[in-house]
C-alpha cells in the first residue's frame, strides 16, 4: 500500500505563531478536520509520518510519527502541511508526479521504484481543489470555507431527533446530535448552517448555538451565544464566541467575548 507523508515547512516563521515549533501544522484544524485528516481523506489512506525538523518527536494523541525530513521510497504521496485539500479522492494518472493548486506545487506522487529526495518542480502535474494556508490567520479563512460543507457532510451521514425542550430556528433536520446531552431551553439557530454535536457533548440551559457550528467529543457548552465556530474535543466554552477555532482541550468557561 502507498504511504502518505505530510511535509512541514523548513522554518514556519512568525506567520504561524504561536504554533511554530510547538506542534505540527498538519495537526491544526482547517474546518472541522485537521489538515492531516483532509489529506487522508483525499488520498484514501492513513498518514505514515509527518516530516518536520521543527517538531521532530512531537506526540500528543493519535497523530503518526513526527520525524525530520528524509527521502521517501515509492509508492507514496507527499502533501504539504500548508495546504488543506478538498474535493474527491485522488486518482491521478500513472505518469503524474506533482499535485498543484493555482499553479503552485502542493504535493508529490512517488511511483513504485522511485525515491523522493525533496520538493521539486519536475514532472507532469495534476490540479487539486483546496485552500493554501499562508499563516495561522488562514485557519479562520479555512473555517469560513469548510465549516458549512463539513457540517453538511455529517448531517447527511446521521439522522437524529431534536432534543426535547429545545427551540429550533430553521430546519430541524439541520440539528445533528450524535449522542450529546442537551438540557431544555437550548436554542438552535440553523438558518445559516447545521449545528453538529458529537458524542459526549453537554449543552447547558441558556446556550444559543448558531450554525454552522461543530462541538467535538466530550466538550461542554456552558451558556452564551456561540456561532460559526469549531470546538475540538474536551473543550469548556461559555460566553460569546464567534468565528473561532478551538483545537481541543481548551478552557474558556468564563463569560465574556
Structure report:
The structure is a single chain. With 257 residues, the protein is mainly beta. It has helices at 35-43, 138-156; strands spanning 3-7, 49-51, 66-67, 72-73, 76-80, 83-85, 96-101, 104-110, 115-116, 124-127, 130-132, 167-169, 175-177, 181-182, 187-189, 195-197, 202-203, 207-210, 213-215, 220-227, 230-231, 236-242, 245-246, 251-252. The longest helix has 19 residues, at 138-156. The N and C termini lie far apart (48 Å). The mean pLDDT is 94.
What keyword list fits this structure?
seven-stranded mixed sheet, mainly beta, 257 residues, 2 helices
What characterizes the major β-sheet? 8 strands, parallel
Structure summary, number of beta strands: 24
Rg is: 20 Å
Mean pLDDT across all amino acids: 94
Strand content: 25-35%
What general form does the structure show?
elongated
Q: Low-confidence stretches at least 5 residues in length (pLDDT < 50)? A: none
Topology:
Elements: E1 3-7, H1 35-43, E2 49-51, E3 66-67, E4 72-73, E5 76-80, E6 83-85, E7 96-101, E8 104-110, E9 115-116, E10 124-127, E11 130-132, H2 138-156, E12 167-169, E13 175-177, E14 181-182, E15 187-189, E16 195-197, E17 202-203, E18 207-210, E19 213-215, E20 220-227, E21 230-231, E22 236-242, E23 245-246, E24 251-252
Amino acid at each position: 500500500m502507498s504511504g502518505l507523508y505530510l511535509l512541514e515547512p523548513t522554518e514556519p516563521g512568525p506567520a504561524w505563531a504561536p504554533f511554530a515549533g510547538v506542534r505540527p501544522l498538519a495537526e491544526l484544524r482547517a474546518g472541522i478536520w485537521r489538515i492531516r485528516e483532509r489529506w487522508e481523506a483525499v488520498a484514501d489512506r492513513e498518514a505514515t509520518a509527518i516530516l518536520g525538523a521543527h517538531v521532530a518527536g512531537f506526540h500528543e494523541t493519535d497523530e503518526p510519527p513526527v520525524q525530520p525530513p528524509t527521502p521517501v521510497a515509492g509508492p507514496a504521496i507527499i502533501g504539504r502541511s500548508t495546504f488543506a485539500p478538498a474535493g474527491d479522492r485522488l486518482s491521478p494518472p500513472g505518469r503524474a508526479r506533482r499535485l498543484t493548486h493555482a499553479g503552485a506545487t502542493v504535493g508529490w506522487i512517488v511511483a513504485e521504484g522511485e525515491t523522493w529526495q525533496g520538493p521539486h518542480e519536475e514532472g507532469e502535474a495534476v490540479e487539486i481543489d483546496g485552500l493554501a494556508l499562508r499563516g495561522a490567520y488562514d485557519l479562520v479563512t479555512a473555517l469560513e470555507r469548510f465549516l458549512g460543507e463539513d457540517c453538511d457532510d455529517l448531517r447527511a451521514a446521521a439522522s437524529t431527533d431534536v432534543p426535547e425542550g429545545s427551540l429550533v430556528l430553521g430546519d430541524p433536520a439541520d440539528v445533528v446530535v450524535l449522542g450529546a446531552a442537551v438540557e431544555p431551553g437550548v436554542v438552535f439557530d440553523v438558518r445559516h448552517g447545521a449545528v453538529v454535536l458529537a458524542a459526549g457533548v453537554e449543552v447547558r440551559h441558556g446556550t444559543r448555538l448558531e450554525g454552522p457550528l461543530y462541538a467535538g467529543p466530550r466538550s461542554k457548552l456552558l451558556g452564551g451565544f456561540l456561532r460559526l465556530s469549531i470546538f475540538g474535543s474536551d473543550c469548556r466554552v461559555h460566553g460569546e464566541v464567534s468565528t473561532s477555532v478551538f483545537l481541543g482541550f481548551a478552557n474558556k468557561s468564563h463569560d465574556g467575548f
